[in-house]
């Protein structure tokens, strides 16, 4: 490795450490963030494959955090597709604004529990969304809130549309089965902590 390459590697490493520390600080300040690190490339890859969004027109993301998943979705989604990403934490929302320069993406600072209103405001109609992907901690919602959010989520999706959720525990499986006709579960251990990826088909 020559001196130029070595300097580039060191800068990349320093940026990586700085971003990880910033993420940990956000987690310490706000427990709703729910993960101490951004999703690993293995979890991102598994989740994106579950989304199966090569021909999608409308995609919604719940809990974009630092935008690790968001950036990959934008890279892989069709040129004509639209992505609506929602994030509750103010620090993450400020960081996500830099991605919003991609005109296919709309960013919303708020709570996905109001997804029906947020979607309407952004021109995403009920029954026409292809994929909804979620990293929000469902375990932090009450039973009523979970049921209400999944009812709204299912109503937004078109028939055959999919809801993909990555979660630390399996508690969501029975609730998903009440709202979707098919639910598949995968485990990705190459993430801190390991996550389940649920694919629920409407
Ligand atoms: C586990 S992190 C998501 C990980 C991220 N997508 C990634 O790939 O690194 C969960 C995110 O959901 C956000 N969140 C939690 N509850 C939310 C809510 N009710 N509405 C919107 N965002 C929420 C948190 O602020 C946090 O950024």
Q: Proportion of β residues?
A: 15-25%
Secondary-structure element order, as H and E?
A: HHEHEHEHEHEHEE
Please tally the helical runs, counting DSSP H or I stretches of 4 or more residues. Answer: 7
Low-confidence stretches: none
Mean model confidence by pLDDT: 91
Bound ions, cofactors and other small molecules, one mention each? S-adenosylmethionine
Q: Strands of the biggest beta sheet: in what spatial order?
A: 3-2-1-4-5-7-6
Q: Approximately how much helix is present in the residues? A: 40-55%
User: In the CATH hierarchy, what is the class?
Assistant: Alpha Beta
How many strand elements?
7
Q: How would you name the CATH homologous superfamily?
A: Vaccinia Virus protein VP39
């Amino acid at each position: 490795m020559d001196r130029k390459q070595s300097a580039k590697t060191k800068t990349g490493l320093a940026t990586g450490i700085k971003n990880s520390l910033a993420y940990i600080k956000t987690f310490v300040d706000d427990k709703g963030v729910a993960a101490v690190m951004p999703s690993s490339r293995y979890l991102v890859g598994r989740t994106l494959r579950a989304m199966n969004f090569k021909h999608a027109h409308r995609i919604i993301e719940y809990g974009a955090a630092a935008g690790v998943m968001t950036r990959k979705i934008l890279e892989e989604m069709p040129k004509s597709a639209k992505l609506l990403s929602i994030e509750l934490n103010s620090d993450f929302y400020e960081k996500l604004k830099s991605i919003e320069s991609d005109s296919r993406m709309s960013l919303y600072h708020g709570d996905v529990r109001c997804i029906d209103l947020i979607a309407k405001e952004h021109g995403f109609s009920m029954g026409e969304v292809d994929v909804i992907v979620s990293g929000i901690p469902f375990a932090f919602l009450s039973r009523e809130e979970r049921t209400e959010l999944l009812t709204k989520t299912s109503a937004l999706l078109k028939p055959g549309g999919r809801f993909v959720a990555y979660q630390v525990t399996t508690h969501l499986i029975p609730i998903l089965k009440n709202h979707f006709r098919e639910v598949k579960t995968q485990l990705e251990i190459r993430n801190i902590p390991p996550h389940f990826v649920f694919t629920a088909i409407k």
